[in-house]
Specification:
This protein is an all-alpha fold. The protein has three helices and no strands.
């Protein structure tokens, strides 16, 4: 009567987002450590190049698939679920990427003390 929910697709999307997130973490750490050793080499905001964009797109694709599979569990068609999740994922991805730029700018201007939230 009803199609089976795509649990395998949800797990696959989640695992791919985790794997891409690990690559993103490593790339971001390496870029910031390189910048910390030589801050005059360039802007910290400029490190958001292809080495960060590629894993970030991988995270977004994994989240998109996971979210679409989750929406399908509630009875939506695959087309509607993927369309809804594409809009949500694109909006969230843009907001997170923008916030990353803001945080990197704060880090460059004020050092690690600029990000100290406990000292407030």
């Amino acid at each position: 009567m009803y199609p089976d929910p795509p649990y395998v697709l949800m797990i696959a999307g989640f695992l791919s987002a985790i794997a891409a997130g690990s690559a993103f973490n490593t790339s971001l750490q390496q870029a910031t450590q390189t910048w910390a050793k030589n801050p005059q080499a360039g802007s910290l905001e400029d490190i958001r190049g292809l080495s960060l964009q590629l894993p970030y797109v991988g995270i977004c694709l994994g989240v998109w698939v996971t979210l679409a599979a989750g929406i399908q569990i509630f009875g939506f068609s695959a087309t509607a679920a993927f369309a809804i999740s594409a809009v949500l994922t694109a909006l969230i991805a843009w907001l997170v990427w923008r916030q990353l730029g803001v945080i990197l700018g704060q880090l460059q201007r004020g050092g690690s003390k600029a990000l100290d939230l406990d000292g407030l």
